[in-house]
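Write out the 3D structure for:
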Amino acid sequence: MPELRECIAHYFILLWFVRHCTDDGMDLRLIGLWCDATQKEAEFKKHHGMVYRLDSKSKVKRGTNNAQTSLWPEMWPDSGVCGQNQKINRKINRKRKGGEGRV
């Protein structure tokens, strides 16, 4: 069963990555969620078929007809996580523009 082998291999790759990041003191905070709308969704035309950033007001859902859930995590309702992430994004963008190396 190749699917099982692939699943186990991906687990070990992810485990290695997380250990590598924690050993090097890297921060693994989520700084944004993005979505690509299907052609049937209103957001598709609004964003010209391109991916777009989600926020706490987003109503986008994914899943099968009877089990659709919101893409935006319910644990983050206007919790300030977005504000913190926007500060992080601005800091990263400043570093990129300032030529302080890759981020």
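The chain has two domains: 1-29, 31-103.
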